[in-house]
Design a protein that fits this description.
Ubiquitin-like (UB roll), 3 domains, Rossmann fold, Elongation Factor Tu (Ef-tu), domain 3, 389 residues, single chain, alpha/beta, 6-stranded parallel beta sheet
């Protein structure tokens, strides 16, 4: 048998060999970089970040900002409007909550997360009452889809915020001012009172100094002696205070009730859905008062949930009607992948084999819904259940 290399008979093969020799001698051998791409990916977008609390800033009587710095290296970059998923171990329960970054992406030394106290807030109470300067926390990399896109959103923006829903907007506003960007922003911020309005003084100062920012605080307490706008952020209020309404892109961020109210109001103004961006926070009130909640299920109702197969050992737990399935599982030591905690990312999806849930999220994929999947972070048990995690 001949040992002749048949490739030498291929036209141009020897020329390729010469080029390869030249490249090896004078160029970069990328074979040496094999596998290193993952190092770069993990540097820019690590799965977990270790953070140290560098400062705690009291914003209002119910709200604090935690300034978080990296314990090791630089922080991953983020887009204004994105959030981190903060992990916590509280009384033996491993859980997490998403918090929008309120600091500007123009600076890279720290992330600010602004935390508001909510009734029976398991994690918020921990962060507000227990965490101190110097403590170490863990989070995900920044993520989320609630950010400005220069290709589609234009340069005339209207922000509709409620409560702690102001936090992603503060990141966007700070970035625009820090970088001197050519965007015009008009902010409507709904609050119960002036005292409860987060970043109020900073927003007043920025609006006074920069012509491309207009700040409208809207107080819901009609009996207040506040001289500014009062009531709700409805179609009439927007129409009276926004010029050239058809040229604007609208952003909404706040509790679910605000989104459910404001979206129909924008419909009244004939604002097309493609010019409406939204970031939905978790339901802020009693879930039993949510629209369409079953009348036969009370706040004291408790159900049995059989968690079988899949990613965990089969076990049966008790779940309250007023807590999402993901919380019930975490409380019983079952670790559930999660990120947004508002029904959008789908990491915590579970399959319901038997029983019924009340679900707030409208973001379950059709293929998932057709096959019995729900998002555990926004699904509440209203009967005994059997699920696969």
């Amino acid at each position: 048998m001949s040992n002749k290399d048949f490739r030498l008979d291929i036209a141009g093969y020897t020329d390729i060999l010469k080029e390869m020799d030249i490249c090896r001698k004078y160029g970069q051998d990328y074979r040496l970089e094999k596998g290193k791409w993952m190092e770069y990916v993990n540097y820019i977008h690590p799965s977990k970040i270790e953070l140290r609390v560098a400062d705690i800033i009291e914003e209002t009587s119910k709200v604090k900002t935690l300034r978080l710095v990296s314990t090791t290296d630089s922080l991953p970059p983020f887009l204004a409007g994105q959030y981190i998923n903060l992990f916590a171990n509280i009384d033996g329960v491993r859980t997490s909550r998403p918090y929008s970054i309120s600091s500007s992406p123009a600076q890279t030394a720290y992330y600010d997360i602004t935390v508001g106290r909510i009734r029976e807030g398991f994690v918020s109470d921990y962060l507000l009452d227990k965490v101190k300067v110097g403590d170490i926390l863990e989070s995900s990399s920044p993520t989320g889809n609630f950010y400005y896109n220069p290709l589609f959103h234009g340069e005339d923006l209207v922000f509709l915020a409620g409560g702690t829903g102001i936090t992603p907007f503060m990141s966007m506003i700070r970035e625009v001012i820090d970088k001197g960007l050519a965007r015009s922003i008009q902010l409507f911020y709904g609050s119960n009172s002036v005292e409860d309005a987060i970043f109020h003084e900073e927003l007043l100062e920025k609006a006074k100094k920069f012509n491309n920012l207009k700040y409208n605080l809207v107080i819901s307490d009609l009996s207040s002696n506040y001289a500014g706008l009062k009531g709700l952020i409805d179609a009439d209020l927007i129409k009276e205070n926004v010029a050239d309404i058809n040229t604007k892109t609208f952003y909404i961020c706040g509790p679910v009730a605000m989104y459910e109210f404001c979206l129909p109001e924008l419909d009244k103004l004939s604002i097309p859905r493609k010019r409406i961006r939204r970031e939905v926070y978790n339901f802020a009130g009693d879930i039993v008062n949510a629209p369409a909640w079953p009348n036969d299920v009370t706040a004291n109702s408790e159900f049995t949930v059989a968690v079988i197969g899949g990613r965990v050992k089969t076990q049966t737990i008790k779940a309250k009607a007023t807590e999402p399935l993901v919380v019930a599982m975490e409380r019983n030591g079952i670790q559930v992948p999660s990120s947004c905690r508002s029904g959008e990312c789908s990491l915590c999806r579970v399959k319901v084999l038997r029983g019924n849930v009340f679900e707030l999220s409208g973001h379950v994929r059709k293929s998932d819904r057709d096959n019995g999947y729900v998002h555990a972070c926004s699904a509440y048990p209203v009967s005994d259940l059997e699920i696969i995690l």
